[in-house]
Amino acid sequence: MTGIENTTLYNEDMKGISTDNASFEFFRKNDVLYVDKTEFIYKLLCAWPRRFFFVSRPRRFGKSLFCNSLESLFKGEKELFKGLYIYDKYDFKPYPVLHFDFNNMDADSIEDFIKALKGKILLQAGNAGIDIDSSYGPAMMFEMLIERLYRRDGEIVIIQDEYDAPLTSAAIGNPEMAEGIRKTLNSFYATIKNKAGMIRFCFITGVVKLSNLSIFSAMNNLVDLSMDKEFAGAFGYTDEELDEYFGEGIDEYLEANPGKYKSREEFR
């Protein structure tokens, strides 16, 4: 499986290729090449009653784009999926979506982290038009947001990208802060388990394997897809996808750089 490198392959007859934008809408509206991963989304939707999923992959393997495509799907943005595998297989019923991204949550103390986490919750609440009391801790604020959104709009969808980013950065040289973040996140994610009856779908990504951190100890309903062969192709690019979507561009790159690589296989 190949990650998404900082390489641009483009000619006048090919679609543009973006490696620095994880917006599904951007890909679909700007004629940017999108490798269709929606068959894997469809498989997740067909896994009912399983609906709480986790996957770990290295950075730059397309996790954020996958999360963003899930958000568009659950918001009912059907036209963005025209021409893709899932387009005529799903009803695109809209759900309220809470999409958290924990990238770039730099904090110098546990207090800074809690403030940043509360800010993420308040941002989602504001986007949804829900008022919550910021004087409470993150777990209680998250619980209030889920309950009030459910009462108003019905079942909700929760998408969490890079769950472990704050913890892995804090763990370097500050084990006490890392432990404080771990406990805070444990309470945060316990809310998802406690409110499972209000949640239509939950998808969580990260770099660190599920078993390596005890953050999700309360979420015994979480299905780990990280080593599931059926979903191995959901992230990164397979050899077949490289040939189908990028073959022409790779060949032109090899022709323009003679001697650098002998073949497609060596280029990979």
TrEMBL record:
Pfam families (alphabetical): AAA-ATPase_like
InterPro entries: AAA-ATPase-like_dom (IPR018631)
Domain AAA-ATPase-like as annotated: residue spans: 23-216
Entries under PANTHER family matching the protein: AAA-ATPASE-LIKE DOMAIN-CONTAINING PROTEIN, CONSERVED PROTEIN, WITH A WEAK D-GALACTARATE DEHYDRATASE/ALTRONATE HYDROLASE DOMAIN
Name of the protein in question: AAA family ATPase
Organism of provenance: Candidatus Ornithospirochaeta stercoravium
